[in-house]
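Issue: ligand-bound run for calcium ion - logging full I/O for the record.

Environment: standard queue, default settings, no custom constraints.

Inputs:
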Amino acid sequence: AKAQGRNRLQRFALGLDATSALALLQENRLREALRAGRLLLHYQPLIDLDSGEVRRVEALVRWNDPVEGLIPPERFIPLAEECGLIDAIGAWVVDEALRQLAEWHRQGLDWLKMAVNLSACQLESRELPQAIAEALARHGLRPSHLELEITESAALRDPENAAQVLTRLNGMGVALALDDFGTGYSSLSHLKLLPVASLKMDRSFVRGIDSDPEDAAICAATIALAHELQLNVVAEGVENASQLDKLKRLGCDLVQGFHFSHPLEADRLAALLGSGARP
Ligand code: C2E
Ligand code: CA
Ligand code: CA
Ligand code: CA
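Outputs:
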C-alpha cells in the first residue's frame, strides 16, 4: 500500500493523472476523518421470524463529513480497501461496535448480539483473529456475542488463507455469516469449505420475491439449501408485508430491512429495543 501511495504521489507531482490526484485528496480526507472521529456506526435490527424478537443488530459504517453530511460506505469503503486504510477502519468498526454492545448489555439488553461486516482485505491478515479476541476481551464480551459477515468474493481472493483465518475465528466461538449470498463470485463450494453458520440472501432476490417468479424460486431454493446444510437464513432488504409473508411461508429464519427499521443511530435503536415495541 505504501508503494502504491508513492506511485500515486509521483504521478500526482508529474500532473499525469487527475483521477489519482483526486483519489489521493479523498484518501487524505478519509484518513483525517478516521483520526478526527468523524466515522460513526448505525445499527439495523435482525428479527427472528418465529418469535418476532430482535436477535442481533448489524453495524453499518458512515462518514460524517462537515460539508457533505453523511457519506454512505459504498462511497469510501472501496477507496479504503485500495489505499490500505481498511485495516484501521475495520479495527475501529469492531472496537466501536463492541463498545456499544457492552454498553447496551449494561443497560439490560444483555441478550443482544452484534454483527459486523468484514472486508476481503481484512481476511488477508493473519493477525485478525488475535485482534478480534483482544477487542472482545477489552469490552468484556464473549466471542458468541459477535457475528462476522463476509462476502463470497472476500473469501475467494485467497481462499486458503481466508479459510484458515475464518476457521480460527470460528474455533474461538465467533459466528460467521456469508453475506450477499447468490451474487458476485458465488460458489456453492464455499458453503462446504467455510465454517459459516448463516447465509444472508442478497436483497436483489428478496426485492422480487412477491412479484417475480424467478426471484421467488431463487429464494425458495436458497432457504431449502441452507436448511439442508443446517444453516440459518437471513433475508435482507425486506421492505413490505407482502415480501415478509412470502418469506414466512418459505420458512426463512431471520429478516432485516426497512419494513422493520432503517439503520439507526445507537440511541434511537436502543429506544426502539427498550420500548419493547416489535420493530
Ligand atoms: P450490506 O452488508 O449488504 O448491508 C446492507 C445494506 O442494505 C446497508 O446499506 C443497509 O442500509 C441497506 N438496507 C437495509 N435494509 C434495506 C432495505 O429494506 N432496502 C434497501 N434498499 N436497502 C436496505 P449501507 O449501510 O449503505 O451499506 C452498504 C454496504 O457497505 C454494506 O452492504 C457492506 O457491504 C458495506 N459496509 C457497511 N458497513 C461496513 C463496515 O463496517 N465494513 C465493511 N468492510 N463494509 C461495510
Ligand atoms: Ca452485511
Ligand atoms: Ca448483504
Ligand atoms: Ca450488499
